[in-house]
Amino acid sequence: MSTEDRRPDQPSTERPNTDQLSSERPNTAGRSAEHAGTARRSTHAGPGSSSRPDANRTPEGKPAYQPDLFDRPVRPSKLGYNLAMIAAGIIVIAAFYGTGMDLGALLQMPGNIWQYGQLMLQGILQPFDITDPDDVVRGYWIQSFNAMIESVAIAWIGTIIGALFSLPMGFLAARNMSPLGIYLPTRFVLAVIRAVPEIIFAIAIMIPLFGVGGRGGALAGAFALGISAIGTLSKLISEAVEAVDTGPLESARASGANQVQMIRWAVLPQVMPEVIAIWLYRFEVNIRASAILGVLGAGGIGALLSTVFDARAWDRIGIVLVAIVVVTIIVDQISAFIRHRVIHGAAVRARRGGKADDDGGSGGDTPPVDDDPAPKEQRAAAGL
Question: Do 167 and 275 meet the contact criterion of CB atoms below 8 Å apart?
């Protein structure tokens, strides 16, 4: 049936020519690839990409960005930074003049350091006979180290006092261990203790109670350091307790443990390494603080340092400073080693002998270990 003989409402039975349709169909794949390449180039194109002809172009084909010769990136403004530095400088200058400080003395400080340093160095380097008990310089060294050891003892007693009270106070001040009625008053008491320096405790309370100088002064210094340490140590311990893993606590609570048992078996194993490290660090701080309290008459190296300063005996001052530095460094190194050992554990040491062989035997001089309990004859008979 021809096209003229077919009625308008009758559907066509002729198949379309596929070659003609494919030639008339637009090339969408090629256009998509071209558009993707243009978009990719446009995305990565920057101010210096005008050399590429199709980068950053408008729909009309014109370049959207045309940098000129003087086009440069804009630097961020430093106005706020400059104003802050000017304000900080004004505050420092106002503090100098407000307190009546003499800037001329600051300029003379390098010369004074050189002069007094030479005098102290002469005292340190002067020879002495260590076997002669009547040697004056030998007596200076012995007296200085004895006074420094007394300061270490004062610091140790103060640390023990602070440690004994800080552990229970730390649990009472922990939010997850105490009810609100105990937590808030404990925190308030610890805040009051931390607000008062140890030098105020020594002057206002301990020295009037125990006296100045001698064993009374040393006891006053130890108690002043101990009470001041309670506030700081309890605060740090409470923060460590609040940061414990709640898994062991929930397990202990689910098994029916009471509050004391939960603290003993779920909290203390987690916090004790950190607590011991905090105590040791406070011991280092107390050593330095005991030297300051000794100037007030609380015993230790500070009392001797105050005496030689009043006499302007720079040779003896140098000896006292050497004793302070040497003993403090030794104690710090020992304390740091113990803290590292407590927190991180013992160092893994390499075993003696070589590495294990591939067949299970050990290298070196160590004989191989036979793990099979059966005798070798039975294994050979069984074909093993």
Answer: yes
Alpha helices in 196-311 (DSSP H): 198-201, 207-210, 214-242, 246-254, 259-262, 268-295, 301-310
- CA 161, 168, 253: angle at the middle one, nearest 5? 155
Compute CA distances 102 → 99, 105, 106, 108, whole Å. 9, 6, 7, 10
CATH superfamily of domain region 138-344? MetI-like (1.10.3720.10)
Q: Where are the domains of the chain?
A: 138-344
Statement: the pTM of the whole predicted model exceeds 0.85: no
Q: Which of left, alpha, beta for 383 (phi over 0: left; psi -120 to 50: alpha)?
A: left
Nearest to 297 by CA among 218, 197, 204: 218
Between CA 213 and CA 303 the distance in angstroms is 8
The residue with greater pLDDT, 51 or 210, is: 210
Q: Are 130 and 138 in contact (CB under 8 A)?
A: yes
Q: Which of 205, 338, 334 is nearest to 273 (CA)?
A: 338
Q: Cα–Cα distance between 301 and 319 in angstroms, integer?
A: 11
N-to-C CA span, the chain: 91
Let me know how long the chain is: 384
Q: Are 235 and 192 in contact (CB under 8 A)?
A: no
pLDDT digits (tens, 9 = 90+) for 129-181: 888 888 888 888 999 999 999 999 999 999 999 999 999 999 999 998 889 99
Integer-rounded Cα Rg, in Å, for the chain is 41
The Cα–Cα gap between 210 and 374 comes to 77
Lowest mean pLDDT among 13-22, 68-77, 234-243: 13-22
